[in-house]
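INTERNAL AUDIT FORM
Audit reference: QA-55
Scope: verify that the stored structure record matches its stored sequence.
Auditor: D.O.
Record contents follow.
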Amino acid sequence: MWKKSFLVFLFSLSVQKAALDCERVRKTNELPSPSLHSETDTVRRGQNVSLSCLQQNKSLEITYFLFRGGKCLQTQDGKGEPVTFNLTVSEAHDLGPYKCKVQVANCSKYSLPFNFTFADPVTAPVLNISVIQTKTDRYITLRCISFNGSLPINYIFFEKNITISPVISKDVRKPAEFNITKSNTAEVKEYRCKAKNRLPDHAKYSKPVTIPSTGGDCGPFCLQLLLPGLLLVLIIIILVLAFWMLRKYKANEKPVPGVEPKQCVSSAQDGAKYSQEIHYADPVFQQVAPRDQENSNNSKDGYVYSELVL
């Protein structure tokens, strides 16, 4: 009987000692709260990620626990080095919140919660360029947009491989714009842009767009710039010609004063084999003055007859 009482006494002492040790650890901060972090908090669906739990006290043998909500997912023992937990984020419930717990004896501490966020990678952006040409300068507007990818998206513009713009962030699906002014030059200019959102290592570049030199033939690019103006000029010319032809047609339809319209007489031969139309012109009579005084009394006035046209 006394042995059983002695064992209970020893167990009570050990519990009290552990409680005193845990209280001492808390007071001396020998077991601070751990930190839980990942290389990124933005992930794609189905992405493998790693969560690291770090305890600053490197002299203690510590047991590490990873929780998602109230569920314990993994357990590891470690000392002096961060412990890494690997998992896959596929569904909405995999986003978190996650917590890391460290435990020494019956003393334990929890980290702050950590959550992931789903994001879609950007697609290759599209670069459009508009140019206003003067005698001395070019005014260039660069527009870049990625039509897919989680917002916000950061854009940067390049001339060849040299960055020419600051980071332009867009939290709406609209193109980023950047304006530059260049002096007229014979050098060909090449531009492109880069789009990147919160997903690491998923930046995309546009296809390069070339602006030809100001001298000589500028090729398809200049044709693209001039085509709207040429089409407008062509439409105006067509409208003017149509209007002129309409006025000419209406002018020809007006009847000639004092002249009766031509008559048309149709005659048929051999039944319905063929028909012939004869057009008669009205004769025009003009009075002619006498040639001399002598014949003026003895002769009648002369007349001139027009020919009949068949």
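Auditor finding: record pair retrieved intact. The longest strand covers residues 137-145.
Action required: none
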